[in-house]
Design a protein that fits this description.
Number of domains: 2
Order of helices and strands: HHHHHEHEHEHHEEEHEH
CATH class of the largest domain: Alpha Beta
CATH superfamily of the largest domain: Endonuclease Chain A
Strand content: 5-15%
Bound molecules: zinc ion
Radius of gyration: 18 Å
Helix content: 40-55%
Number of helices: 11
CATH topology of the largest domain: Endonuclease, Chain A
Strand order of the largest sheet: 6-5-4-1-2-3-7
Length: about 260
């Protein structure tokens, strides 16, 4: 493959992710390339399966109201388990109480999110960290991503565009599996420098096979070699310098928008 074409493959990765969710409006050149590039066709297949794994998300972009409602209803109806992966997790008002109630009803809730060391968004982390002990007290299991995980090299080799855009490796997935059969995948703000892709898209799907694959992917991320298991007695905040921790402390004095 000529080097030029290989660069194009990398460049259209964010577009492919948007396209996989039916959210790519522009991109005649990208479409033309996709039509004749087996590698990008293959990547598109993967994006369609785990569309929530790669994109950036932003705390200021809230889900559309109806999607948000469906999501909350699906969570409320959980019977066995909820597995969440989100780069910036700040629950909306009442969220911690809802989780506490679900745990009491026997629902196992696991959350995979960025640690202070892996996050690129300190205000959002501050919002999350002010809820963290309540979540842990409620019996929610929390796993925080290690910025230098074992699988980093593996992923970076597979998605070269990712390493290029994201020198600090962190989670950008926004996904959830409920009762091993319902999954939510969502993505928005695919490139922080792009304004025209700043649209949230997300889908709720009932599909055991897709739910199994997404579960597998998140469970790999929360293995001890990829994440810290945060508990009532332990969190990995001390893995960053004082300056970053101080910023978190400052931001905790300010209100933060919920971004579940
Ligand atoms: Zn290509």
């Amino acid at each position: 493959m000529p080097a030029e074409q290989s660069n194009l493959c990398d460049e259209i990765q964010p577009w492919l992710a948007a396209y996989a969710l039916g959210d790519a409006e522009e991109g005649a050149a990208a479409r033309a390339h996709l039509a004749e590039c087996p590698r990008c066709q293959h990547d598109l297949q993967e994006y369609r399966l785990v569309a929530g794994m790669l994109p950036y998300s932003a705390p200021e972009a809230l889900p559309r109201p109806e999607l948000r409602y469906q999501l909350i209803e699906a969570v409320r109806a959980a019977k066995k388990s909820i597995l969440i992966q989100s780069p910036y997790l700040v629950l909306p008002e009442g969220g911690v109480e809802l989780f506490a109630q679900l745990v009491t009803q026997g629902v196992r809730i696991r959350i995979s999110t960025n640690s202070l060391a892996s996050t690129d968004n300190i205000p959002a982390f501050a919002g999350y960290s002010s809820q963290r002990s309540d979540l842990l007290d409620a019996g929610v299991e929390v796993y925080e991503f290690n910025p230098n995980p074992a699988m980093r090299d593996q992923l970076a080799g597979k998605y070269p565009g990712l390493a290029k855009h994201d020198p600090v490796f962190g989670l950008h997935a926004k996904s959830m599996v409920i009762d091993d059969e319902t999954l939510f995948i969502g993505t928005f703000n695919l490139d922080p420098r792009s304004t025209n892709l700043n649209t949230e898209v997300g889908v709720l799907i009932d599909n055991r096979e897709l739910a199994r694959q997404l579960t597998e992917s998140i469970e790999r991320d929360i293995q001890p070699e990829n994440s810290w298991h945060t508990t009532v007695d332990f969190n990995p905040d001390s893995h960053v310098d004082f300056g970053k921790r101080f910023k978190v402390w400052m931001f905790r004095l300010l209100p933060v928008e919920p971004v579940l």
